[in-house]
C-alpha cells in the first residue's frame, strides 16, 4: 500500500506540471483575502530555466483568449513560450462591489491610486509576481494586460517603473490626468519597453475619444529606439470583439525582436552575420531567453547574401553555420557556392557532397540536390 501511495503521489505531481492550465486559490496577506489565479504552463517547463511572464487582469475571459492567440503565434515562432497568468476579478467581493472596480480604483483628477487600488498593486508586486517567479519560473521580462477599466490600471505600474517591462491596454479609459503622465513617461523612456493600445469603431464612446486623443500626441513623438509604441483602431469591432483582434498584434509587438528574420527586416543591412548575432544578443538582453540560433534565421541571411552575390559574406555565414550546426546541410552548400564562384570546382564538389550526405530521407526533393553534384562533376570533367 505504501508503494502504491508513493507512485500515486509521484504520478499526480508529474501530471500537475504536464498540464497546460491550472487554477489556484492564492491567499493574500496584503489584501487579506483569497484570490483565484489561472496559470498556463509552457510545454518545455521542465527543460527551461525561466520564461517571460504575461499577466492579465480580468482573468475569467482575458486569460483563455490570450492563451489561444499565443498558441497560434508560438506555432510560427512569432513569440516565445511564456508563463501566462490571469487574475479573476469579475465577481462581487465582500463589499458587494464588483471586484475589478475595487481592485483598480483610482482618482481620475490627480491620476493617483486610491482605496484598494493601492493594496492591489502591492499584492501584484510583492506577493503574486515573486510567487510566480519562484514556483513557475517567471523571468525578468514581464507584461501586464487589461481590458476597459482594468486596462487603465497598468499605467500605474508604468509611472513608477514597477516590475513590468511592457503593457497591453485594450480599450482603456484615459482621462487627461493619466494621459499626460503616459505621454511624459513614454517621451522620456530610456529602457526597453513596449506599449500597446487598441480601440474600435464601436468602442465605448468616452474610451474611444480619450484613446484617439492620446494617440494623436504619441504618434508625433520621436521615441527612444528602446520604446515600441503600437496603436490599433479596428473597424467594425465593438468594445469586446476588439479583444481577439488586438492580442495577436499586441503579442507580436511586445516580442518584436524575437521573431524569425524577414526579408524586409534585413534588406538594408550590410553585414548580415553581425546582424544575426546582434539579434540573439538582443533576445537574451530584452527577454532573458537563451535561444539557440534558428536554422530559419540562418537561411534568411544565407539566401540574401547569395542573391546579392556577396561571396565574402556567404563564406562567413557558411563557416559560422558549419561551426554551430555541423549536421546542418546548408552550411556546406553555402561554402560550395563560394568555392564554385572562385572556380575551385573540386573543393566545391567535395563540400556539396558533404552537405548532400546530411540530407535526411524526409527531404522529398533529394534528387534535385543530387543534380548539383552531377553538374559539378561535368564541369570538372570538361576542365580536364
Describe this protein's structure.
- There is one protein chain.
- This protein has 384 residues and is α/β, with parallel strands linked by helices.
- The chain has helices spanning 2-18, 59-75, 99-103, 116-136, 149-152, 155-159, 176-187, 205-218, 242-254, 263-266, 272-287, 295-308, 311-324, 329-341, 345-357, 366-383; strands at 21-28, 33-40, 51-56, 83-87, 106-107, 112-113, 138-147, 166-170, 193-202, 227-238.
- The strands form two sheets. An eight-stranded mixed beta sheet has the order 1-2-4-3-7-8-9-10, with helices on both faces. A two-stranded antiparallel ribbon has the order 5-6.
- A hairpin with a 4-residue loop joins strand 1 (21-28) and strand 2 (33-40).
- The chain starts with a helix and ends with a helix.
Brief sketch in words of this structure:
The protein has 384 residues and is of the alpha/beta class. The protein contains 16 helices and 10 strands.
Task: Summarize the helices and strands and which ones pair or pack.
Blueprint: H1 2-18, E1 21-28, E2 33-40, E3 51-56, H2 59-75, E4 83-87, H3 99-103, E5 106-107, E6 112-113, H4 116-136, E7 138-147, H5 149-152, H6 155-159, E8 166-170, H7 176-187, E9 193-202, H8 205-218, E10 227-238, H9 242-254, H10 263-266, H11 272-287, H12 295-308, H13 311-324, H14 329-341, H15 345-357, H16 366-383
Parallel strand pairs: 3-4, 3-7, 7-8, 8-9, 9-10
Antiparallel strand pairs: 1-2, 2-4, 5-6
Helix pairs in contact: 2-9, 7-8, 12-13, 13-14, 14-15, 15-16
What is the end-to-end distance? 81 Å
How would you write the strand order of the largest sheet? 1-2-4-3-7-8-9-10
Q: Quick one: overall form?
A: elongated
Number of helices: 16
Q: Using the CA coordinates, give the radius of gyration.
A: 26 Å
The overall strand count is: 10
Helix content: 40-55%
Major sheet summary line? 8 strands, mixed
Instruction: Tell me the β content.
Output: 15-25%
Class based on secondary structure composition and strand pairing:
alpha/beta
The arrangement of helices and strands along the chain is: HEEEHEHEEHEHHEHEHEHHHHHHHH
Oligomer: single chain
Mean pLDDT across residues: 93
Low-confidence stretches: 1-19
Amino acid at each position: 500500500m505504501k508503494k502504491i501511495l508513493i507512485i500515486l503521489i509521484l504520478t499526480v505531481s508529474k501530471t500537475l506540471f504536464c498540464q497546460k492550465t491550472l487554477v489556484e486559490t492564492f491567499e493574500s496577506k496584503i489584501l487579506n483575502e483569497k484570490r483565484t489565479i489561472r496559470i498556463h504552463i509552457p510545454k518545455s517547463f521542465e527543460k527551461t530555466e525561466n520564461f517571460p511572464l504575461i499577466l492579465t487582469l480580468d482573468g475569467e475571459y482575458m486569460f483563455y483568449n490570450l492563451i489561444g492567440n499565443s498558441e497560434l503565434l508560438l506555432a510560427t515562432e512569432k513569440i516565445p513560450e511564456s508563463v501566462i497568468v490571469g487574475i479573476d476579478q469579475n465577481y462581487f467581493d465582500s463589499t458587494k462591489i464588483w471586484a475589478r472596480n475595487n481592485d483598480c480604483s483610482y482618482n481620475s483628477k490627480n491620476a493617483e491610486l486610491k482605496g484598494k487600488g493601492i493594496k492591489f498593486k502591492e499584492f501584484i508586486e510583492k506577493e503574486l509576481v515573486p510567487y510566480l517567479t519562484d514556483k513557475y519560473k517567471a523571468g525578468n521580462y514581464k507584461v501586464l494586460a487589461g481590458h476597459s477599466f482594468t486596462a487603465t490600471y497598468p499605467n500605474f505600474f508604468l509611472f513608477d517603473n514597477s516590475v513590468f517591462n511592457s503593457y497591453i491596454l485594450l480599450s482603456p479609459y484615459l482621462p487627461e490626468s493619466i494621459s499626460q503622465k503616459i505621454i511624459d513617461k513614454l517621451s522620456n523612456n530610456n529602457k526597453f519597453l513596449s506599449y500597446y493600445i487598441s480601440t474600435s469603431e464601436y468602442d465605448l464612446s468616452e474610451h474611444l475619444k480619450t484613446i484617439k486623443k492620446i494617440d494623436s500626441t504619441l504618434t508625433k513623438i520621436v521615441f527612444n529606439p528602446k520604446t515600441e509604441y503600437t496603436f490599433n483602431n479596428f473597424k467594425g469591432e465593438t468594445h469586446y470583439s476588439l479583444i481577439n483582434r488586438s492580442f495577436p498584434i499586441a503579442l507580436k509587438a511586445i516580442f518584436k525582436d524575437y521573431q524569425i528574420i524577414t526579408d524586409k527586416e534585413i534588406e538594408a543591412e550590410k553585414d548580415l552575420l553581425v546582424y544575426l548575432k546582434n539579434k540573439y544578443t538582443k533576445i537574451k538582453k530584452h527577454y532573458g531567453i537563451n535561444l539557440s540560433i534558428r536554422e530559419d534565421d540562418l537561411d534568411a541571411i544565407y539566401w540574401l547574401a547569395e542573391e546579392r552575390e556577396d561571396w565574402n559574406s556567404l563564406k562567413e555565414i557558411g563557416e559560422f553555420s558549419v561551426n554551430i550546426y555541423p549536421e546542418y546541410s546548408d552550411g556546406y552548400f553555402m561554402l560550395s557556392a563560394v568555392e564554385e564562384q572562385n572556380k575551385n570546382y573540386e573543393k566545391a564538389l567535395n563540400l556539396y557532397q558533404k552537405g548532400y550526405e546530411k540530407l535526411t530521407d524526409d527531404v522529398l526533393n533529394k534528387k534535385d540536390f543530387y543534380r548539383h553534384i552531377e553538374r559539378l562533376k561535368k564541369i570538372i570533367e570538361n576542365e580536364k
